[in-house]
Amino acid sequence: MKAYLDFLSKENGAGFEFVSPPIDEVEYFGPGVGVGLRKGNDELLAKIDKALEEMIKDGSLEKFSLKYFPFSIQPANWKGVGQ
What we know:
- By secondary structure, the chain is mainly α.
- The chain is 45% helix and 0% strand.
- It has a domain at 37-74.
- The protein has four helices and no strands.
């Protein structure tokens, strides 16, 4: 995302593009993007998890990510949603 936001989406990045497949091995990088929270803030974590689950189920997270990026910011199944 950083390469896209800081370079490819700007005038200086015109004529450039990603040429390799995505680097998204879950075993090394985890499942998608992350949100930083203070340890022990379980109530906030539950609220965020619920909101993300609802957005994944109704398709709004995908729509939101494609508004800002030319690629999805979510893996196909995040925390078991859709299984």
